[in-house]
Amino acid sequence: MNVVKIDKNRFEQGIDQARAEYRLFGPAKDKDRHTIRQLGKDEYPDMAYSDSVLSAKSVLFPQTEKMLYATFEESDPDHHTMKRVEADYSPRAVIGIRPYDAKAMEILHLNFDNGDYRDPYFCDALE
Question: Is residue 59 helix, strand or coil?
Fold first, then answer.
């Protein structure tokens, strides 16, 4: 996990520069609540939020996602074989992450990437 710092006096320019390298996520108001979601092309994070519905962890680990697939077509040489779904692991940045959410990511790392066990889905999401 890298830290990207943006000068608050040049906030919008910093966000626009970060867009060139990262898919940006941040707090955005949806109806009557805030969510951490991918920001649109000309959208900026709402830094006045106090809490979001889901934590920033949902950016890396959505509540649901396809992980494996299989085909039963006999013409496919890999039929009846479970295969990993290709995922988009392009660089992402979460703007306005709370310190406790950042610490939670470090704690998860201790469980899912250590000498005894390495979860490939977790590790690939962080790279």
Answer: helix
Contacts of 40 (CB under 8 A, 6+ apart): none
Q: What is the pLDDT of residues 99-123, one digit of tens each?
A: 888 888 888 889 999 989 999 888 8
Contact 126, 1 (CB under 8 A): yes
Under 8 Å between Cβ of 35 and 53: yes
Banded model confidence at residue 1, pLDDT cuts 50, 70, 90: low
| Residue recorded with tokens 């995922």 | 87
What does each C-alpha distance from 10 to 6, 57, 95, 126 come to in angstroms? 7, 27, 14, 28
Here the tokens at position 47 are: 């830094």
